[in-house]
Amino acid sequence: MSTGTPAPADSLEHVNVVLGAPEIGRALTRIAHEVLERNKGGDDVVLLGIPTRGLPLARRLAARLAEVEPGLDPAALAGSLDVTMYRDDLAHQPTRTIGATDLPGGGIDGKVVVLVDDVLYSGRTIRAALDAISDLGRPRAVQLAALVDRGHRELPIRADYVGKNLPTSTTERVRVLLTETDGRDAVVIEGGTR
Amino acid sequence: MRHLLSAADLDVRDAVRILDTAGQMAATQAREIKKLPTLRGRTVVNLFFEDSTRTRISFETAAKRLSADVINFSAKGSSVSKGESLKDTALTLQAMGADAVVIRHQSSGAPHTLAHAGWTNGAVVNAGDGTHQHPTQALLDAYTLRRHLVGDGGRSDVSGQDLAGLRVAIVGDVLHSRVARSNVQLLHTLGAHVTLVAPPTLVPVGVEAWPARVSYHLDEVIADDKPDAVMMLRVQRERMSSAGGGFFPSPLEYTRGFGLDARRLDALPDHAIVLHPGPMNRGLEISADAADSPRAVIVEQVANGVAVRMAVLYLLLAGESPAPTTTKVDA
Amino acid sequence: MTTRYLLTDVAPLGGTPVDVLLADGVIAATGPDARAQAGDDATVIDGAGLVLLPGLVDLHTHLREPGREDAETVRTGTRAAAAGGFTAVHAMANTTPTQDTAGVVEQVWRLGRDAGWVDVRPVGAVTVGLEGERLAELGAMAQSEAAVRVFSDDGKCVHDPVLMRRALEYVKAFDGVVAQHAQEPRLTEGAQMHEGVVSAELGLTGWPAVAEEAVIARDVLLAEHVGSRLHVCHLSTAGSVEIIRWAKSRGIDVTAEVTPHHLVLTDDLARGYDPLFKVNPPLRTAADVEAVRAGLADGTIDIVATDHAPHTREDKDCEWAAAAFGMTGLETALSVVQETMVDTGRMTWADVARVLSSAPARIGRVDDHGRPVAVGEPANLVLVDPAARRVVDPREQATKSVNSPFRGRELPGRVVATFLRGRATVLDGVPCDDDAAVSR
């Protein structure tokens, strides 16, 4: 699971860069094609990024969708879905700052919502997202895109679109760095070998 | 944040964080389904030693919208009225597992005592104590001011912003007002300039230490300061009687000097807004013209109150309990 | 036969160390004579480094009995007094029933005599039931066994100027004094703390300095007009010091007291809303503290009196407004005076003997107390170790109540021994319970 406080990855020991900027770009392009193929076009698709890093990923995917299907408006495709108030681990962590939830103008009723997150791990964030969605409306279907799937699921949840499967140990930390939030694109694995 | 006892406890970061959180809470309240699961399993007790249906309902709504269990404990008129009984009440609530106690009390400092006497482990939220503090009122006022007067007047995202440079006049019975005390501190913290306007009898001795200017002339303040907002305080009619302290000669004279009427409303800058914590004494501190004008945001203050109180309850209750833990975090 | 005590190398009033022999209730000998006359049976107390003072006399103690024995009794209060170095205390009149008749003051006097820890001098109420409406039978109290000389409605102010004038006049007949609790009642309705910057912030109703000063000003003028002596209780403001200074310069027969807590504590302490710091008159500002210290040092203020006001836990373990006014003080008074006046170089131990013993004894017309440390004088004495330091723990104090504002605070000085007419009431800093019981 990535964190909201990006320490410079280079300064940490046991840092292993597993994806660079080109790989991330290719993965997103592939996911964009898969979304269009599976949903027979992008007309009903709404990409909801889960803050913090799911949001820029959703925006990038929206831009790629619009590249493939020029009729699509990328701004109307992507939104953000904050799941903080639906989490089941609030009482076990310092108080989290609540992010913004911004749905595209058309709402989500009857749409295909593609949830976008950076790392899929226990599945609990996605569980919270599903609850949040059900309070916001009734999509026709909900799908899940993750840049990295690192395994160790604790709930019966799987991704529909995965950028990269990364087998990890639970003592390791997977962090996604994005230009929009961290100044560069990379996926790194830290720690775990102590 | 462990408790919310006084606006003075908040630095600018805390205050802006509460306002930002309130903004997100307000967004959820525009939805069809307003209830959030966030505080499921938490218990919030509204402990009211003094009648205040509005404040209690606001806190109750806020807690329920966050799925907390709410227990309303009205202590007024019962045997619970003073002394040891605050302690016994607190111990009772502690035994019932209150995670937060929202307390309204006629004695200044009672919430402070409740929070620090070791009678309860719960978070204590001051919902108004004597003539001391009413921090959530100040927060909802600041939230309302920010929505209307910062950025482009409510449309753009104002999160992260304070109230730097705003001019706010607080008018009326400053001496007895917890709303005034809370607002002076919070508005100052957020960078606004506050002018207190009142007859000299209703200004406390010691006000010189407050981060606010004091004037005895409302018309001058309106003309010279051109305030961005005027906050009218409730004035109790009984204050004019000898038994009530004889603070002013008559309601009429008070209204002439310090009431907000149509003429003074017109003299305000076009963008200025009018606030009142309620309940209003129409015809005394505020005329119907002013109270019902489009520039009065008094009804909106009530709605914002729920969002602000949701934010406060969220920030106090959602995180891990502040008791020292020895949990080790895997790196 | 009572024990004889040889105090070796003690410093009377902080002066040159000598030996002092106590025998038969008096100071039997000093210097080389003391050791010579001591014989083998005298108990020797090594007094090196210790200061010998006349036993302290408190003009302002609330012993609470009769009526509030849950907070203090004459026995527990006087035991605390002895532990604090006192040999005589004035028991304030606001008991239940009020000490406003010869019967009640004699009861308190007898309780004190039977307890045996200090001499208890009851204070008589000025007005019946402290109601401020008509004079109590001051003459009867003066002529009773309790021999009342100090009259006070303390806790309430004798605010009716005519009544105050009558009281001042009336007590002249038996050399009495009216001790005024100066508090203008209308200006202090609902008052909770000093009116100023802190009260404005805390939203607690203010107790303005002028409410004290206005009454003192009126009373000194009344005392001048009728040629009576006046005592001002627990003076607390810089303005009050000025008024007393002015009155004395005019030759008005006025004396004034300050409490230990007003010598050191300020209204800032109210910020925590801990009722431990709720007291009447209220804690004032740092400027007032400095003014009362200066007034005490230059003699404007005559005495330090404790205003020892024990309260039960339930009267203090609550919100500020519901809490009772008052603090204990008997067992910390001497230390506070040492810290604020002696250790700061503003007073000598001889001055301490004056403000805590001889002057209050004179004001209260207490014979045999506050006397010089000299051969033939009554052996009412206290032995103090000024070099000791201690952290105040109210639970370890002799008073029944725990409302000490000095809880957890380190104070200098320790009472090593107290002697009442040659009998030790405190030895090694511990009250001599057996001796006290045996003596009666």
Write a concise keyword list for the protein shown above.
heterotrimer; A: 194 residues; alpha/beta; Rossmann fold; five-stranded parallel sheet; three-stranded antiparallel sheet; 8 strands; 23% strand; C: 440 residues; Urease, subunit C, domain 1; TIM Barrel; 2 domains; 12 helices; 29% helix; disordered C terminus
Mind explaining what this structure looks like?
The complex is a heterotrimer of chains A (194), B (331) and C (440). Chain A is of the alpha/beta class and 194 residues long. Chain A has one domain (23-169): Rossmann fold. Chain A is built from 5 helices and 8 strands. A 5-stranded parallel beta sheet of chain A has the order 3-2-4-5-6, with helices on both faces. Chain A is globular, with a radius of gyration of 16 Å. Chain A starts with 15 loop residues before the first strand and ends with a strand. Mean pLDDT of chain A is 90; it is low at 1-7. By secondary structure, chain B is of the alpha/beta class. In chain B, 37% of the residues lie in helices and 14% in strands. Chain B folds into 2 domains: 7-133 and 303-317, 3-Layer(aba) Sandwich (Rossmann fold), CATH 3.40.50; 135-298, Aspartate/ornithine carbamoyltransferase (Rossmann fold, 3-Layer(aba) Sandwich). In chain B, strand 5 (167-171), helix 6 and strand 6 form a beta-alpha-beta unit. Chain B has a 5-stranded parallel beta sheet with strand order 7-6-5-8-9, with helices on both faces. Chain C has 2 domains: 5-52 and 375-439, Urease, subunit C, domain 1 (Roll), CATH 2.30.40; 55-364, TIM Barrel. In chain C, strands 1, 2, 3, 4, 5, 16, 17, 18 and 19 form a 9-stranded mixed beta sheet that branches. In chain C, strands 9-10-13-14-15 form a 5-stranded parallel beta sheet. A 3-stranded parallel beta sheet of chain C has the order 6-7-8. Chains in contact: A-B, B-C. At the B-C interface, helix 3 and helix 4 of B face helix 6 of C. Chain C: Belongs to the metallo-dependent hydrolases superfamily. DHOase family. Class I DHOase subfamily.
Quickly give the CATH architecture of chain A: 3-Layer(aba) Sandwich
| Main β-sheet description of chain B | 5 strands, parallel
Instruction: Assign an overall shape of chain A.
Output: globular
- Class from secondary-structure proportions of chain A: alpha/beta
Regions with little confidence, pLDDT below 50 for 5+ residues of chain B: 323-331
The CATH superfamily name of the largest domain in chain B is Aspartate/ornithine carbamoyltransferase
Q: pLDDT average of chain A, as an integer?
A: 90
Helix/strand structural class of chain B = alpha/beta
